[in-house]
């Protein structure tokens, strides 16, 4: 952020001799038109005029010879006399300081420029091309300068590409009086010689001609191209300063063509072919099987082979599975009986363990920091962020306004001539005054923090502090010094306006670092904080670089950022809160204002969570009420209060909540922080799993008939022995799947998986212990005819007929027979395979990322800010290329690896970033980087007055100081003109980094680079440093992801080229890095979960691999279909949806595993009957448990104000439940009826009454 004094370098350079008005040429050829200085300018009294002199050239005194060689190295006058004295040379040197600083980085450009001025000032043949047209006393007052167009164009062409590294703009934007794109040779020279630039003491009129006019021959000296090597050995200009030295313009690689087959999307075509082939094969197989059965008179519905047949011998795995299943049955039977016989002990023990585990909630920590939530500490982006924060300080905070208006555009007509210029509605002067009032009001805000007053100055970014404590405010009003008076500044009379804010604005957007515009106003453009305000940061809604067409003003208040939990950070947060409160209450009829502060997103997410508590509570309340009412099996109205199980349902819900709190407490003891995702998702998950198990336990008991002489504890123990293996299968599968999901690098996914896995397992343990004990107590209450809840009230004895529940009868008599009919099953398979094919076809089309607008409530003020940000802004986030420690900047070789000027490597860091900026639409790099190293080289040159020190103390002497004891840092010798090396480099670098820019030296590095260079503790070496540019505007998640990819690719190329570690850093990388690998992470996470389910299911299903495969196939179909729903419903893939997909994997186990196990142990006669039997018994419990419970609660989520709730919770939860129910209760039974699985064998322990009763 270097300060350029723009056009002020021309001061006193044009001190030439003059003739009186209408004075004819009387000077002989090869003579002077002036010599020496005399008199003061009437235009600029502090400027000297040259003395009119028509005699021959004079010999230059010896003390002037070194100065002449320094200023005019290409002019070897030898002993020839010249038309200037030492004073004129001193004036010329002082006047050329700023062009030296900006143009000398291209030696050919500066050589040609000095050619122009050396001939003008000292040329011994001045009279050939200079015509004095007016003399004031003895001083030249006006002059004509005849210049050959060939020379003028060559000089311009050598300079037009030269860059100003700290400002990211062409140097001619600072030196031409116009934007560089509007500048040419004629305009540039006319501007330099015009008194309107505020620096030229008298008018010089350039006359461009190839031939002699009125006896004057145009000055047409030989020039050098920017690609030439100069006689003094100076090399050609660098590529970014001279396109002639560049190779071919970089061409972005062509985008890979979309994968198409016959003009259609390839995946869609492939899946159509797959589905067609599948249908043909499937229908063919069905026809063949039907024909075979007709010919052999074998029915698919015929009985299975008797397991007593000696041909069916047990394999080793089958015998092992039989023993394992028998052991589980015996264990759970004994345990169930014990829980019913000792209910108080079991319940008290359970409550005690839950209480102890939940005690950890006292140590609970909730992570709301987005960085901690979405970025792993070991991730590349996180490590790079920590490195950047450690060496350069954390990226600053921002408070920002985007202002639009309903006013109309205006037209400005320049005086005295010029085309009309349209000005956007936000550049109306009255509106600018109103905006300035608002800006000043914000500057005056006072907040309170811990009893102390906090103002903007206490927390703002002030780059020149303590020399200049003004806050950085990136606003067009800083072009007017944030002053109503400067905004109203006008030069003119009562009839015409010669210059006003329009002219100043047009000048400043082309030269934002200028300290003195070239209009008649002569006001500075540099911001009051000591740095430039780039127009692309302060304006929006313009086309190309026509900033005058802007339709939005952008005002940014950068604030210092501090490490977390620091006192300073608290002060910044307090001021931001005051800013937000002020803006919420501010209104103006002419302005529409969108605003945001650094804390806004986090605040709105917190408010969103608070506002959704009611919605979530209603959702859970509906599920709780349903569970409490649906558990009861009412046989008659008279026994309504006896047969209801409200108290048991409430107890079951409390058990679910207890398992959640226990999981949270245990991990809180371990110091694992919670996240909002854990709090919002895990209760839903555990409730789904827990309620399903509760319904299975209760409804199995309700359908069971107690054997004669069997006590209640024996009955419940037997029932638990029958169903607990199934519950254990589902719960343990989910637990293992979730714990393996914790291997993810995403903190949000890892934390969710840990908490969910433990909560599900604790829930299972509580259900087979505490809930079984409560079920035994409730069964005794019911048998004693005591009322539910009010158990002390007892009804009279009465005979009641036991009947099956409605859902059980529906599934057994209607639903199961219907879907398993011979004609229905093929249709179901065809429909579900079609769904699968469609989902596979669109799985690669699911968008990756998270639209930041979705994270905000519907009524959030931040939504309008996001909308305006996307609509109006033209520049993206700052982009830093960080060079880690290891580069030896004190050596020429090390310098050449990084710099972008003369002699630097063509593949240096600056050069490669420059090349990338040429193809910004591809690379997302918007501008050439600001380079502290190149600016330092310009600053330290001995020809410059920037680098000076007091010869008596050795301390730095600023260029604005007038003191004879200040001497140049480096000698005017050949070696002194070269780059500093070794000790010289490190000796003067701290001076550069502490130098404030001023009118005499615009290259001071304090404002722009004070934080860009990390010096070693003893100041003897440069450690890390960065080179800053900007991204192009990035609007949507894919844009940010692409920006991150391209920046990292570029950084990797730079690292390879310079053999030093370089990384790209921008503030958003830490949030978007997850999307570079989210597809891989999703595939890995879900694959590991599914594989773990396969292993666990294989073991717990008695080592029946095929049965486990049926579970996994169905779960995989559910997951794939979830991606199809995500594409249809515009749900993107990100950490939130990955958590939900992981959860859906667990919930899918509930829909599938119970059905498969019930099928595997069914003793019905054939596959179809076994499928019907399993669906009737387990399907009704699964449907009434997980499906209906969740369906009611999910529908309430649609009423949430939170967009993220509506998209990622309502839509995904509803899809999980509907797809799970459809696959588990429709497709899976049909699949089981087709697939040949191991036939059930009559095992010795199956002769007990449990099988005969449960599967009657």
Automatic annotation (TrEMBL):
Swiss-Prot/TrEMBL catalytic activity: cholesterol(in) = cholesterol(out)
Coiled-coil residue spans: none
Entry-linked Pfam families: NPC1_MLD (PF22314), NPC1_N (PF16414), Sterol-sensing (PF12349)
Membrane topology according to the record: Multi-pass membrane protein
UniProt keywords, alphabetically: Cholesterol metabolism, Disulfide bond, Glycoprotein, Lipid metabolism, Lipid transport, Membrane, Signal, Steroid metabolism, Sterol metabolism, Transmembrane, Transmembrane helix, Transport
GO MF entries: cholesterol binding; lipid transporter activity
Alphabetical GO biological process terms: cholesterol homeostasis; cholesterol metabolic process; cholesterol transport; intestinal cholesterol absorption
Gene Ontology annotations for the cellular component aspect, listed alphabetically: endomembrane system; plasma membrane
Signal peptide boundaries: 1-29
SUPFAM superfamilies on file: Multidrug efflux transporter AcrB transmembrane domain
Family annotation (NCBIfam families): 2A060601 (TIGR00917)
Similarity annotation: Belongs to the patched family.
Name of this protein: SSD domain-containing protein
UniProt source species: Gouania willdenowi (Blunt-snouted clingfish)
Lineage, top ranks: Eukaryota, Metazoa, Chordata, Craniata, Vertebrata
